[in-house]
Design goal:
Elements: H1 18-37, E1 41-42, E2 48-50, H2 51-58, H3 63-68, E3 70-73, E4 79-82, H4 87-96, E5 105-114, E6 126-135, H5 140-156, E7 163-169, H6 173-188, H7 196-204, H8 207-210, H9 218-221, H10 233-249, E8 254-255, E9 267-275, E10 283-289, H11 293-296, E11 304-310, H12 311-317, E12 328-332, H13 338-350, E13 355-358, H14 363-373, E14 377-383, E15 389-395, H15 400-408
Parallel strand pairs: 1-5, 7-8, 12-13, 12-14
Antiparallel strand pairs: 2-4, 3-4, 5-6, 6-11, 7-9, 9-10, 10-11, 14-15
Adenosine-5'-triphosphate binds near residues 85, 117, 124 and 129.
Length: about 425
């Protein structure tokens, strides 16, 4: 026996296979279909960026930057980071690749992202996101379009039931600052009862306390001052336009005045689609407006709004997806007709039938194996007395006429 130990997979990574992989692919295919319907342009983005792309965009004090990033020095001594999200990289590309010429530009992307978190159900260290952004659009219609698209996506995935859209506004820069000051005053009075993390956040980033998952913080977040007391007239009007747009499009929403997002770049609209069907990992899709982000990357003020969703969490909600059965199983019951097995299989596949060839193991058992595997049709091939190939078709939901037509042009050996 070998004494070499097989390496274990990296904690927090998943090998997605079979029915689970089908659900995953269903999510990305549905997203791809919808982004075309909403006329979003596709982008393929690098998996890593200079660390500052994320630290400057997301904010040094955020959980993602301070605890969750996979950062490393490359061989040239440069600090690089595996992307923990898409937005910052897309914003960087907007500035460095001259995408401004396309503004307002609607961008869709998907792929793996990386965060050093404690792995559990619905929370991984490598996970995957679908992502949609509208860059260079200041109008609330952009927020509405993204939200309608997100809602539509959940409908098309068949998981909209039991998922609610929670909506908030964080106001403009001015409203947000006033709210922030009031939150500091309020939480200071309860400082000793807060979790260590929240005590730490108090002066630097008090909004983050509202987003805390620590039970010690929950009693205080409920009665904290809300943004409504500090909203400027413009911010209030912006939010009203978003909500009336959603109402016009028939998208249900709920106001959650305590909803803040975990990243620093958000202004105005902030939202999460939440479910109670995934335990603690209930947020499936989240985003908001990030009008301040481009400036933090050294670019011109550029209004933008976007969202991202965890593909694994969406896929976990998708039920009843099995790996599809074959349209035709070609069974070679006698090895002397193997060439026709390979030939008919090729012809059927070229005609668009999902086809599998069964030509290994004991020839007598192959037919039973095919019945057991299950397919819409079995094409069984045997040797005739004249040396030619005989075939018979057994149907289980397959289309006899179409299969026969596909084989019409095939010249038997
Ligand atoms: P959470 O509050 O669950 O940590 P988040 O606010 O950090 O989520 P975002 O940064 O908004 O998440 O990312 C968007 C989406 O990506 C989330 O709504 C979720 O569906 C998914 N997501 C985030 N972190 C993970 C993870 N570690 N594993 C799997 N999916 C994740
Ligand atoms: Mg998180």
């Amino acid at each position: 026996m070998s004494t070499i130990k097989t390496p274990r997979p990296i904690r927090g990574t998943q090998d997605i296979f079979g029915a689970e992989a089908e659900a995953f692919a269903f999510v990305t295919a549905t997203f791809e279909r919808l982004r075309k319907l909403y006329r979003f342009r596709r982008a393929e983005m690098p998996v890593f960026e200079k660390t500052e792309v994320f630290s400057r965009s997301l904010g040094e004090t955020t959980d993602v930057v301070s605890k969750e990033m996979y950062s490393f020095e490359d061989r040239g001594g440069e600090s690089l980071t595996l992307r923990p999200e898409f937005t910052a990289g897309i914003a960087r590309a907007f500035l460095t690749d001259g995408w401004k010429q396309y503004a307002p530009v609607k961008i869709a992307a998907h792929g793996p992202v990386f965060r050093y978190e404690r792995p559990q159900k619905g929370r991984y260290r490598q996970f995957h996101q679908i992502d949609a952004e509208v860059i260079g659009a200041a109008e609330p219609q952009a927020d509405v379009e993204l939200l309608v698209m997100a809602d539509h996506l959940l409908q098309e995935l068949g998981i909209a039931d039991g998922v609610t859209l929670q909506l908030n506004t964080l106001g403009d820069g001015q409203s947000r600052e006033a709210w922030r000051a009031a939150l500091i005053d309020y939480f200071r009075a309860h400082k000793d009862a807060l979790s260590e993390d929240s005590q730490d956040r108090l002066e630097r980033n008090p909004l983050r306390i509202l987003d805390s998952k620590d039970p010690r913080d929950k009693p205080f977040t409920a009665d904290a001052p809300t943004i409504d007391e500090f909203l400027s007239a413009e911010a209030e009007d912006f939010f009203a336009q978003v909500t009336s747009g959603l109402d016009a499009a028939g998208v249900a929403w709920e106001r959650n005045p305590a909803l803040v997002r975990g990243l620093d770049y958000y202004r105005h609209t902030a939202f999460e689609f939440v479910t109670d069907r995934l335990g603690a990992q209930g947020t499936v899709l989240a985003g908001g407006r990030y009008d301040g982000l481009m400036e933090s990357l050294g670019g011109p003020a550029t209004p933008a709004v976007g969202w991202a969703a965890g593909i694994e969490r969406l896929a976990m909600l998708v039920e009843g997806l099995q790996e599809p059965v074959a349209d035709v199983l070609v069974v070679v019951e006698d090895d002397t007709v193997l060439a026709d097995g390979m030939g008919t299989t090729a012809a059927l596949r070229r005609a668009g039938f999902a086809t599998e060839l069964l030509a290994s193991g004991s020839p007598r058992k192959r037919f039973d194996k095919a019945v057991k595997q299950g397919g819409k049709a079995i094409l069984a091939l045997t040797a005739g007395e004249d040396g030619g190939t005989r075939h018979r078709l057994r149907l289980d939901g397959g289309d006899e006429a179409a299969i026969t037509a596909a084989l019409e042009g095939y010249s038997w050996n």
